[in-house]
Amino acid sequence: MGSDANKMNDATSFQPSEPAPCANGCGFFGAAATNGYCSKCFRDIRIHEEQAASAKAAVDKLVNNNNNNNVVNFHQTLNTSASGSEPVPVSAAATPAAAVEEIQKPSNRCLTCNKKVGVMGFKCKCGDVFCGSHRYPEKHDCEFDFKKTGRDAIAKANPVIKAEKVDRI
Predict the structure, then answer these.
(1) How many other CB atoms are found less than 10 A from the CB of residue 22?
(2) What are the C-alpha distances in Å from 155 to residues 1, 35, 126, 163?
């Protein structure tokens, strides 16, 4: 009687399939969730696909930038030939190297006294790094508007709520 119940239970219950070897042939067992690959091969394949996608995006971006630069150079050539021998100045956006050099400042020195601050430098809200004696906004003539920032924060945190007017009887 007990064996009949086990036979019936076996017929209705989920039968686990035989473990399939990895589709990559590494010797481990694959899973249906990882497309028949073992976890290591699946991770390696995903990493390879992500790298290929990022490389393709970088190449596309590079090609698009080169096309834009060629268009600027083409327009500059047309403007030069149309106006005579006087070249037309190109905007600052065409020379990003100069802008990058200006943005990158050594952040290990105080902006006011040029003293080395290392790890102990204080970064102000204006974006510059200062030593201990120039860390306060009054000491380094900070141009950051603290009042406006405070007003904006209070206005955002406490919106104006107006109730409907009450009708008098």
Answers:
(1) 19
(2) 78, 53, 22, 18
139 sits in which H/E element: none
* Contacts of range 46-52, beta carbons closer than 8 Å, 24 or more positions apart: none
- Whether pTM > 0.70 for this model: the answer is no
Q: What is the pLDDT of residue 90?
A: 47
Q: How far is CA 128 from CA 102, 110, 162, in A?
A: 14, 8, 42
Can you tell me the distance from the alpha carbon of 8 to that of 3, in angstroms, rounded to the nearest whole number?
9
Distance CA 90, CA 76 (A): 8
Distance between CA atoms of 130 and 121, rounded to whole angstroms?
A: 6
If you search the block for the tokens 């070897």, which residue do you land on? 21
Q: What is the pLDDT of residues 67-96, one digit of tens each?
A: 665 555 555 554 554 444 444 444 444 445
Burial track 104-128 (b if 16+ CB lie within 10 A, e otherwise):
eeeeebbbeeebebeeebeebeeeb
| pLDDT tens column, 31-64 | 888 888 998 899 999 999 999 988 888 888 888 8
Give the sign of the dihedral formed by CA 105, CA 110, CA 113, CA 115: negative
